[in-house]
Amino acid sequence: MSKHVTPWLSAYHDGELHGVGLRRVEQHLAECPQCRAELEELRMLSVLLRQTPPAVNFLRPERFVARLVLQLPRRTSLVVEFGWWLVPFGTLAVWLFAQVTSWLRAVFLLGLDAGLLTNLLEFPSTSLQMNWFTALTSLLGNHLNPFVQAGLSILNNLHVLVVRWQSNLLFEAILIVVYLAWLMVCMARCSSRLRTA
Question: What pLDDT digit, counting tens, does each position of 86-95 carry?
Fold first, then answer.
């Protein structure tokens, strides 16, 4: 036989072959010195394994996995720190939204005051007036000098401008305070980490 029976040698050595397979391997071993040498190596390996004492410190798979997990670095702090970095981005997004909304409102009101949007809207364009200006003009009406009316109108427009500016300034001041509070907390956390390290 020219074909070697190497794949069946370990089954033959363990006594797992029966019938036709057993007879084929025995016939081949009688004719092939190379396969006989390989079978002899298997027998010597088996004897060597029987003579070797078992490992005393062998860990069960569950204990090995548990030890390995305990040695891995912890990553829970990364999740917590990621949330802190969202604060300035959220503050910036709110500020940008407020700025865009303010500019769009200003353009819309300018279009209303100029009369450009009166055809698009069903209500007529009215200029913004403060309560004191409305009360004064309705109380005195036509008795006011044209120069006084013009001066009161200028004061009204300045007052409207200051009120709008103050509301925007207050909103931006709140955003600045939120950002600075975040910055102070981050600096305190970093300095406490440096002290512990």
Answer: 777 888 888 8
Is residue 127 within 8 Å of 153, Cβ to Cβ? no
Instruction: Place 188 in a pLDDT band, splitting at 50, 70 and 90.
Output: confident
Going by C-alpha positions, the residue among 36, 9, 4 that lies closest to residue 22 is: 9
What residues make up the domain containing 171? 77-196
Tokens for 192?
A: 């406490």
DSSP 21-54: HHHHHHHHHHH-HHHHHHHHHHHHHHHHHHHSPP
Q: Does one domain contain both 67 and 87?
A: no
Q: Which token pair is 89?
A: 């981005």
Instruction: Tell me if 1 is assigned to some domain.
Output: no
Q: Which residue has the higher pLDDT, 22 or 189?
A: 22
Same-domain status, 17 and 50: yes
